[in-house]
Amino acid sequence: MSNTKQFTYNVSDYDQFSYDYSQYWKKRRYEDLAEKTLLDNIFDGKRGDWFLDVGGSYGRLTNSYYSKYQHPIILDYSAKTLRNNWEIIKNKYPNTELIAANAYKMPFKENVFDGALMVRVLHHIEHPESYYKELRRILTNDAEYVQEFANKVHIKATVRALLKGNFKFFSQEPYAQPALTMAEGSDNVEGIFYNFHPKHVKKLLMEQGFTVKKKRGCSFLRSPLLKKLFNDDTLLFLEKIARSIFSWTNIPPSVVFDTILKKEDKQEEKYAKIEDILCCPQCKGNLEIEQDSASCKKCNITFEKKDNVWDFRVQ
Ligand SMILES: C[S@@+](CC[C@H](N)C(=O)[O-])C[C@H]1O[C@@H](n2cnc3c(N)ncnc32)[C@H](O)[C@@H]1O
Ligand SMILES: [Zn+2]
């Protein structure tokens, strides 16, 4: 088994504070629709069996991939969010499974997923190289992976750095944002919040065998002034134009990579149900699965399914 090394990384644990992430979107219709329209476009034409939305929260983006893949899974470290939204998600997207787990240590066998997505989560990942290694393990050869991330060198940050003469800013080192109040869940000083240089993310992906097929920009018009001047529909119209002209640049605050993974291992098995793809998130060994519990004899851990959601969280 690969990836059995024991390590512990900090996780941005949304369960530590009572925060309903869906509320964050109430006043951000432009950004929400900008991301959804872009993803609809990216997923158009993609197909597959198992699909993973890493850090998928309350299923904000499920509509973009749901009809494309037979078995969509939303994985999130916040068990509370998954349990609170289970019924709403299942009503809308009945085939979707919800699993509480850590993106660094996922409870899935090798070579399972034909597709995966991560949006607005990479800023919480302090060790993306480790996450990408884990992601490579669970994806099949030719799997397609869509990665959104906060762009460190977007136009406003670049102008700010130039005015300050801060040329160190342009390195590929991730930029740790100062803790912000309620910045998408990071409401404590320990919050993990990184902005990444597109070249750095691309390099880390390539090291694990991913090729960036297409780079796209998103939320070009995310600015309080522009939001005052134009209504959401005008902003979305302008966004479409900006996207078609400037996606190759580092102007936008949010960048999306549409990637494909090449690896030697060929997927041999077809899996029909969720229990078939699960393994111990810690040692990647087999689990003894019963109705509402799953045990790893080697690690001596029992994982539980409560309120319809499996809890495979390990740190
Ligand atoms: C800002 S929200 C984004 C949710 C969703 N992707 C969206 O765009 O609507 C970030 C999510 O990432 C999850 N998260 C953060 N670190 C994680 C980790 N190590 N493993 C799994 N989920 C994580 C949080 O629990 C939270 O639900
Ligand atoms: Zn184990």
From TrEMBL:
**InterPro entries xrefs:** Methyltransf_11, SAM-dependent_MTases_sf
Q: Which GO terms describe its molecular function?
A: S-adenosylmethionine-dependent methyltransferase activity
Q: Which UniProt keywords apply?
A: Methyltransferase, Transferase
* Superkingdom classification of source: Bacteria
GO terms (BP aspect): methylation
Q: Where is the Methyltransferase type domain?
A: 52-142
Q: What is this protein called?
A: Methyltransferase domain-containing protein
